[in-house]
Amino acid sequence: MTPQSDEDEVWRQIVASFNETAERDSADQPWPDSENVPAEPVRRVVKPSEGLEGFEELEDTAERDPDGERDGAEDEGHFEPPPPPPLPKLDLATKLAWVALFGGPAYLLVAAMASWHMEGWALFTAVAAFIGGFVALVVRMGDDRPNDSGWDDGAVL
């Protein structure tokens, strides 16, 4: 037999056995306990958290011991991120650039939706405010390294 005819025979066997049932039925395979779904739905209790006013925290009551304490194994992989740093304070020029960047197109959108008659100078001012705000923000962005980068700056291109 040639290698081509052996390959053809293997393909014929695969095609012939396509619709046959598997030797081992899926009912015989064990079902892992981790895949079992609890019979009753998980109840959740909403309680305010200590550090965040106005936010609510969800807590599972089904995962508690009868004494009311959580299992130590449950908290092993739990990660609570630290609170985010405060937003930086913006100077007047940056605030004006953001207002111009969004204010120009917002004025044009409102004027178009309200069918206002726009004078040429108003249209020019709105477009110039958008472009000027964008340019001001890009120029003020800077390309210097942060002060806390440390001794290893990584790859410098």
TrEMBL record:
The chain crosses the membrane at residues 96-114, 120-139. Residues 16-88 are annotated as: Disordered. Residues 61-79 have a biased composition (Basic and acidic residues). Keywords: Membrane, Transmembrane, Transmembrane helix. The keyword Transmembrane applies. This is Uncharacterized protein. It comes from Nonomuraea cypriaca.
